[in-house]
């Protein structure tokens, strides 16, 4: 594969003309990294079997982990499903473009490699002007898993993408940092009531306000319909240990124990209580707002990886609203 080319799309000016080469690459079966409001996605033509196989190969992604198809509008969904259930249609009209992925019954002509052989397909309309324009010019659907090596923290900047995929993809569309920082919420609307398969950038409370009762999937046959539910995800190279929020005593006990083992330790904290820890380049203090934490948590994990720490102590957050999605990512990152 040729050297990765980065195309700056940091303003709306002339974006449309800048995307021609990216569209040509996609039509030729190549790989293009695109920005979304959640994280950067690794794009390929969803109907090109060979191109989709490249996505799995480049990421080192398990073949039983389905992909999300990105389209430019609700109307474009009809290419991939024969029908949208009423509750799914209400959610799509309310929250697309946005951080919502709907699991729908698939059309038979969708390649099995996209859906991991399942009879469902995951689809969303991303809320980013660069990618909406890319999708319109491409005039089709793009698979778009996070643009990173499988299992690593998701990329929220182009530098994160380059750390994992430089030289492995054709083009990266650079639109700066993503706004939300955690992936989309995945809702299976083929069931009634619908099931949440993956927590993400759209709050469960907002979904329930629109369609009423929803359930959290726990069974394998449902969870396997969504990415980010069964395999190890979001993990830095270092071991991640979660520490109770605002509990400085617990954090200090971990520090003392790890120091006796001569471990190189990183810390990510948010609360005033944990300011007792001496500041250093290995201690990343983040703004306490949950939106800021969600936007920056993957970046913080990657920054501490640069310092080659062996253990990262991360302060937990409240699981209200967006905090539930953040804790979902941190728990998966802490799995050994």
What does this structure look like?
- It is globular, with a radius of gyration of 20 Å.
- Helix content is 32%, strand content 18%.
- The two termini are 33 Å apart.
- A hairpin with a 6-residue loop joins strand 9 (185-188) and strand 10.
- With 336 residues, it is of the alpha/beta class.
- The strands form two sheets. It has an eleven-stranded mixed β-sheet with strand order 1-8-2-3-7-4-6-5-9-10-11, with helices on both faces. The protein has a four-stranded parallel β-sheet with strand order 12-15-13-14, with helices on both faces.
What's the main sheet like?
A: 11 strands, mixed
Order of helices and strands: EHHEEHEHEHEHEHEEEHEHEHEEHEH
CATH-derived architecture of the largest domain:
Alpha-Beta Complex
Low-confidence stretches: none
Keywords:
15 strands, 336 residues, alpha/beta, 4-stranded parallel beta sheet, 11-stranded mixed beta sheet, 32% helix, 2 domains, Rossmann fold, DHBP synthase, 12 helices
Brief account:
This protein has 336 residues and is of the alpha/beta class.
Secondary-structure blueprint:
Elements: E1 5-8, H1 15-18, H2 20-27, E2 32-34, E3 41-45, H3 49-59, E4 68-70, H4 86-95, E5 100-105, H5 112-115, E6 120-124, H6 129-138, E7 142-143, H7 158-165, E8 171-174, E9 185-188, E10 195-198, H8 204-211, E11 215-216, H9 220-223, E12 239-243, H10 248-260, E13 265-269, E14 283-285, H11 290-306, E15 311-315, H12 323-334
Parallel strand pairs: 1-8, 2-8, 4-6, 5-9, 10-11, 12-15, 13-14, 13-15
Antiparallel strand pairs: 2-3, 3-7, 4-7, 5-6, 9-10
